[in-house]
Amino acid sequence: MAEAVVDSTVTQDISSGGFSFVSSTEWKVGAEFECNLDVPLRTFGSKAVRIRCRGKIARIVDLGEGRVGVGATIDHYDFFAS
Hints:
The chain contains 1 helix and 5 strands; from the N terminus they run βββαββ. By secondary structure, it is mainly β. It has one domain (18-81). The chain has a 5-stranded antiparallel sheet. A hairpin with a 2-residue loop joins β1 (11-15) and β2 (18-23).
């Protein structure tokens, strides 16, 4: 079983098929992950929403200074009230 990685970041872009973010954590292309995305109130109207998703790391771009840009696919997701 893979070691759990905990990272907290802000998404740069998000859609039903994937999202991108900046991280100082070491990621590998093809690595599978599970995460929670907290979506602000203004996106869904009156309720904040948490999206629990599973996917794979699709792209990594070295941004320098120990940071990377990460592109990830979303293969499955569920919505929960925050």
